[in-house]
Amino acid sequence: MRTIGKPVRSRYRWVICALLFFATTVNYMDRQVLGILAPTLQKEIGWSESQYGLIVTAFQAAYAIGLLGVGRMIDLVGTRVGYIISVIWWSLAAMAHAAARSAFGFGVARFALGLGEAGNFPAAVKVVAEWFPKKERALATGLFNAGSNVGAVAAPLLVPWLTLHYGWRWAFLVTGAVGFFWVFWWWAGYRAPQDHPRVSQNELDHIFSDPAEPTTPIPWMRLFAHRQTVGLVVARFITDPVWWFYLYWAPKFLDARHGIGLAQIGLPLVIIYVAADGGSVFGGWLSGYLLRRGWSVNAARKTAILVCISMITPIIFASYVSSSWMAVLLLSLATAGHQGWAANIFTIVSDMYPRRAVGSMVGICGFGGAVGGMLVASATGFLLEKTGSYLPIFILAGTSYFLALGIIHLSSPRLDPVKL
Fold first, then answer.
1. Chain segment 3-27, per-residue pLDDT in tens
2. What dihedral angle (degrees, nearest 10) is formed by the CA atoms of 180, 93, 69, 73?
3. Which domains does the chain carry?
């Protein structure tokens, strides 16, 4: 019998997806500010390419540490409270960049930002696992993950204007403050589906249409004992650094190779990350479409991944093109392909692991990606300082995803649920 006061029918799970989308938008807007301002700050503060690489490494190191702890924290305290803690922390850290006066100061601020921002994806993927049945999770993940690109679009529209009119410190202060508006919205609008007054019994039955799962906590060591966990961690270790490179070095690449400075960077970056948005939604939609056509979870996810990563390969030629718009096109295809890959990789975690382990697993996998990003960020800074060549980096970016997909296939040939 329907609870008194509840609607007869509802689709409130998509409102929750919208909340995740906006949190991810804020998350990426805050981390993108430094990449946009890097050429400006490099001239004003006076850091070298290698110092910039180490600043990025500080974020990656903290992100790796945070992912190990915050995923577990979210599994223990729940998504409502855990998400709020993360957003408040990273918003304060983002604003703290305005007080930095040296490369070291920016490194400290980036480290604090990395600790807080580590909470976004473990929380968001766990919320999707709690609010969506398996057949909808890839689309929901693709939709909220599209927020990463909207944030990356919003930043180049807002940050140059704030910097040119009020100075770069205000760019960090304004973008960092946005997270507090989201915290209020989340606190007011989020409850577990079974406790939410706006969720109908009809929708609740749909959300819990998959077989019931136990609720007892799962120790971390039981997760590490499975080859599926190792495969996902290694795959993220190989591919996440590519995405970090786009975030932190694409503006520098376009400035150094094509003369696109702060006043002109907005439109190219908007094009790149709007394309990435489309890739995220497309990747999630494609695997869901194949599932509805009767494909197995294994075939649907891996086929969608293969289609998406095939879009990335042409980035190898980015160093050779003389047209700035051709470079933008290649970067757009690559970021779209990566985000389609990411939507499915996040979903594979919730396909194979029970809900009570999803936050921990996303944190563990993200840790692998952050460690890879940390190593590549330092190496990129030193490589560019010594050679000035982006070619080795683009070759790595264009080929690493196929290796990662092979590793996932070897470790999880059928994407069967992990027996914990």
1. 445 676 778 899 999 999 999 999 9
2. -20
3. 13-195+219-411 (1.20.1250.20)
